[in-house]
Design brief:
Strand content: 5-15%
Shape: globular
Structural class: alpha/beta
Strand order of the largest sheet: 2-3-4-1-5
Helix content: 40-55%
Largest sheet: 5 strands, parallel
Order of helices and strands: HHHHEHEHEHEHEHEHHHHEH
Number of strands: 7
């Protein structure tokens, strides 16, 4: 039997797309009718700080976020006492390899800005080149404006922002048009929009130098270091706890060997790598438990169903082309940043 809610969602989606095509832009009132929309975050600044502190690693990033929040609070108090505010841009640059928590920190900052009254909504809109650049003349400005409108009163997070600037590109490329549109709107909406651009360190430097006014628009640059082996073990254990699994002591030792053998460098997956290892270990555990007879499987205890041991993680590493000894050539298909 068809689900009436599913029919409603399909109908809204079709109607939204038809109206969007007819008017050439976003239809906010239809978006608000979508029952799948997440409720606005209402946590206090203290609760958001606690979440920041609970993140694994990222100590230098946490310290910079605390300093930024403290600066904004002091500026707010100065305004309350009639003192001049130091005019500074709130737009940020995040540099680091994939899986180092850039999106997580961006979302937390958006909520913090909302809790301090700097942004009315404090939501995060995440885009990349495809969400800003069109294929034909005139489309790029429309797509970029659409993304900006969705992000107003919140944070626009542009992942792999360096892809907007392609030095030496042959043929027509509209990335520069997206940058110019973005620069103008960052100034026009400076009290309603925070822009965060993110990507690899080397490529982000090239991106910031690609337009004379680009680097000056961003007040701070936060560097996200790769996670250490111990931090990756802790992240994998966190994934396990969130899904009601646990990593055994021998499993943790095997993880340390796997992470120590993984090739590091630009493009290393970090937490994404840890998640993939965890997911592959679940498959390995399922195969291990399913290898017993059906009668025996029916008597498997809860502890066995929730435990991931060294055998499971070793099998996961082999599946991914890694070993717990010397590093093997990295398989980049699933390591690539998103």
């Amino acid at each position: 039997m068809a689900n009436p809610l599913d029919d409603l969602l399909v109908g809204l989606s079709v109607l939204r797309e038809q109206v969007r095509q007819s008017v050439g832009g976003e239809v906010d009132w239809l978006e608000r009718l979508d029952p799948r929309r997440q409720p606005a975050d209402s946590r206090s600044l203290a609760e958001l700080r606690a979440e920041l502190d609970s993140l694994v690693g990222l100590e230098s990033v946490k310290e910079q976020v605390r300093a930024l929040v403290a600066f904004l609070q002091v500026q707010g108090r100065r305004l309350e006492h009639g003192l001049p505010e130091v005019a500074t841009s709130q737009h940020l640059v995040f540099v680091g390899n994939p899986g180092t928590g850039k999106t997580t920190i961006a979302r937390l900052l958006a909520h913090m800005y909302r809790s301090m009254g700097l942004l009315r909504k404090g939501h995060l809109v995440e885009v990349d080149r495809a969400g800003l650049v069109g294929e034909y003349v005139g489309m790029t400005a429309i797509k970029t404006e659409r993304a900006i409108r969705k992000a107003l009163d919140g944070v626009l997070f542009i992942d792999e922002a360096y892809a907007l600037a392609r030095p030496g590109q042959r043929g027509v490329d509209f990335g520069q048009e997206a940058i110019e549109t973005l620069l103008k709107r960052m100034e026009d909406h400076r009290h309603r929009l925070v822009v965060i651009v993110a990507g690899y360190p080397r490529l982000m430097n090239e991106f910031l130098d690609s337009n004379p006014g680009l680097r000056s628009r961003f007040a701070r640059e936060l560097t996200f270091p790769d996670y250490s082996n111990e931090e990756l073990v802790a992240i994998t254990e966190l994934f396990a706890r969130q899904n009601e699994y646990r990593v055994t002591g021998s499993g943790a030792d095997e993880l340390r060997r796997i992470f120590a053998g993984a090739e590091r460098g630009e493009g290393f997956g970090n937490a994404r790598y840890a998640r993939t290892i965890f997911e592959q270990a679940l498959n390995a555990q399922a195969l291990r438990l399913a290898g017993v007879s059906e009668t025996a499987l029916g008597h498997v205890e809860v502890d066995e169903l929730t435990s991931l041991n060294e055998t499971d993680f070793a099998a996961a590493a082999r599946t991914l082309g890694e070993s717990s000894g010397d590093p093997l050539p990295r398989r980049r298909l699933w390591w690539r940043a998103s």
